[in-house]
């Protein structure tokens, strides 16, 4: 068993995909795919992941997994987590999309390793409606 020589640097975690799964009247199951980038010069032996996903500054889902994964040194890997959210929250998100010029996301949480936890936070733009409509903001 190898040990980490220094305190690991926090990973970069990017939202890759959100796939709707089963839906009931009150609950929507989602598969959230996250790309975890390891900036360290050693593998990260992940024992779990805990994250919250926001769209347009509104919480969409919280995900938890205890699946083990290895993120290679100076590399990345996609981690898929099944989670649930309120169907009403999904409907609210869909209704609000028309009011915004862009769809933003924020993912924050903790990557669990043996004996330590690495916090992460990342945000970005999923959809820019100006680009979809053909409107250009540049030259």
Outline the structure in words.
This protein is mainly beta. The chain has a single domain, classed as Immunoglobulin-like (Sandwich), CATH 2.60.40.1820. It is 12% helix and 59% strand. The chain is built from 2 helices and 8 strands. Strands 3, 4, 5, 7 and 8 form a 5-stranded antiparallel sheet that branches. It has a 3-stranded antiparallel sheet with strand order 1-2-6. A hairpin with a 2-residue loop joins strand 7 and strand 8. The chain starts with 11 loop residues before the first strand and ends in a 6-residue tail after the last helix.
Q: Tell me the overall shape.
A: globular
- The radius of gyration over CA amounts to 17 Å
| Mean pLDDT score | 85
**SSE run:** EEEEEEHEEH
What CATH architecture label applies? Sandwich
The amount of beta strand, in percent, is over 45%
CATH class: Mainly Beta
Domain module count: 1
Helical residue percent band: 10-25%
Total DSSP helices: 2
Distance between the termini: 56 Å
**CATH level 3 topology:** Immunoglobulin-like
Could you provide a short overview of the structure?
With 139 residues, the protein is mainly β. The protein has helices at 87-97, 129-133, and strands at 12-23, 27-37, 44-55, 58-65, 69-71, 76-86, 102-113, 116-128.
């Amino acid at each position: 068993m190898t040990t980490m020589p220094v305190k690991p640097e926090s990973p970069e975690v990017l939202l890759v995909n959100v796939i709707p799964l089963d839906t009931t009247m009150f609950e929507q199951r989602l598969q959230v795919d996250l790309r975890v980038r390891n900036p360290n010069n050693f593998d990260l032996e992940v024992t779990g992941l805990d994250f919250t996903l926001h769209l347009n500054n509104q919480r969409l889902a919280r995900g938890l997994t205890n699946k083990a994964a290895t993120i290679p040194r100076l590399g990345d890997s996609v981690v898929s987590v099944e989670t649930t959210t309120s169907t009403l929250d999904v409907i609210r998100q869909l209704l609000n999309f028309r009011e915004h010029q862009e769809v933003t996301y924020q993912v924050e949480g903790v990557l669990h390793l043996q004996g330590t936890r690495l916090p992460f936070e990342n945000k970005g733009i999923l959809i820019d409606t100006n680009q979809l409509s053909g409107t250009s903001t540049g030259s």
